[in-house]
Amino acid sequence: MILIFLGTAGSGKTTITASFGGYLEKNGNSVGYVNLDTGVKKLPYKPDIDVRDIITVEELMKEGYGPNGAIVESYDRLLSHADEILSGILELDEELDYLLIDTPGQMESFLFHEFGMRITSGLKEPLAAYLFGPDILRRPSDYCFVKFFAIMIDLRLGTTTVPVLNKVDLIREEELSSIRRLLEDIDYLNARLKLDPSMQGFLAYRICSFLPEVSPPVRVVYASAKTGEGFDELETLSYEHYCTCGDLT
Amino acid sequence: MILIFLGTAGSGKTTITASFGGYLEKNGNSVGYVNLDTGVKKLPYKPDIDVRDIITVEELMKEGYGPNGAIVESYDRLLSHADEILSGILELDEELDYLLIDTPGQMESFLFHEFGMRITSGLKEPLAAYLFGPDILRRPSDYCFVKFFAIMIDLRLGTTTVPVLNKVDLIREEELSSIRRLLEDIDYLNARLKLDPSMQGFLAYRICSFLPEVSPPVRVVYASAKTGEGFDELETLSYEHYCTCGDLT
């Protein structure tokens, strides 16, 4: 089973790759780790495949690139190695129970770059976990943004995508229950959006009203890479996805 | 008038800021330049406001951060300066005909970070130009992705967003006319999507069928920061947006 962790820089991909992997191993599974981030300095897990063996952002910066240019250039250069990386991943997946893929620090290096599509399109039924933090959920329209963003990932990479609210250990109980309601109860979210008189609120309302028609309501996972909360749910989802090929309603 | 250039690293934001600004100045306009990219090394324009006066990614990397961590940290630190940056922008906007804002190298540092929302929500009727290159348009579903991504920017930042296909100088004439048809003729795009038997194709078809209901068909600009192609259209759009407050159908 292949699980890809995706999310913006700082969303906790690397930490959850290590801690969820540790959880799976403790439960008796064999687990492989793939690092696709050319910019990470230290990893809290031992990667079986590591793109930094081919190229790193820091090397490119020493060649004179700025940080943004170096990130883009690193994936341009990895493109010619995409087939060998993919074969390595497929081989590991045959041998092991779980394969966890930690993606580039900047999500756009994966979503918008040919490299990300080359890797994901070669995988058999991968499940993507789209990590986001509570900090991006400030207004009702942000909930609509997050839900649609998961669908955008599906559309771009062809993966089934589960939204994972990470860092729930940072949220108080009452706040979490309000977040859960806005993420799970589409009628409630729409009622809240209807009260927003801004153009943004109106756009969010139209987009969200349409959500159930575009995509079935995929479950949201509430996780903490720190405390292990939600790991049982993530394991169940990975397994269900593997058995049912993508139906996670 | 404020025009914000947005797009992934390498989409040409900085180059078009300089060359479109030069074009506007040549036509007798007074133009101001704002750089919000903490990671850029050299700018081809002279910024009136430059976030690198406050913090740079390279400084943070010298403190020990990796490139991704340094990018995130730079915007975390800029957050406490958001009000002063915003006042500076509003003051310049009063004095000048055009104000061009060049955003962070990594688009997600702007779209997903509180800093981007703080800046954009304080601006009066800004127009955002969402730059993308022909390299991300490989399959019909990618056209759907790009069109919806512009709406996602609207939703997140509350800006009116114009999709700008940049680097058209790199495309052959026949290729460009095929791209234009897929970007502009939604019925044609839907007919193509209907032929795609993959899950991804089916999702794209459902999303695209719904597009006209969510958002009126905004015009697409075909531009080249190198040759100046499309600059007249971009100028017209900025002006129309300013006069009609957002109706760019």
TrEMBL record, chains A, B:
InterPro entries in UniProt:
Gpn, P-loop_NTPase
A molecular-function term among this protein's GO annotations: GTPase activity
- Which keywords does the record carry? GTP-binding, Hydrolase, Nucleotide-binding
Query: Gene3D superfamilies recorded for this chain?
Result: P-loop containing nucleotide triphosphate hydrolases
Which PANTHER family did the record assign? GPN-LOOP GTPASE 1 (PTHR21231:SF8), XPA-BINDING PROTEIN 1-RELATED (PTHR21231)
Looking up NCBIfam families in the UniProt record yields:
PRK13768.1-1
Q: What family is this?
A: Belongs to the GPN-loop GTPase family.
Identify this protein by name: GTPase
| Provenance organism | Thermococcus gorgonarius
Q: What taxonomic lineage is listed for the species of origin? A: Archaea, Methanobacteriati, Methanobacteriota, Thermococci, Thermococcales
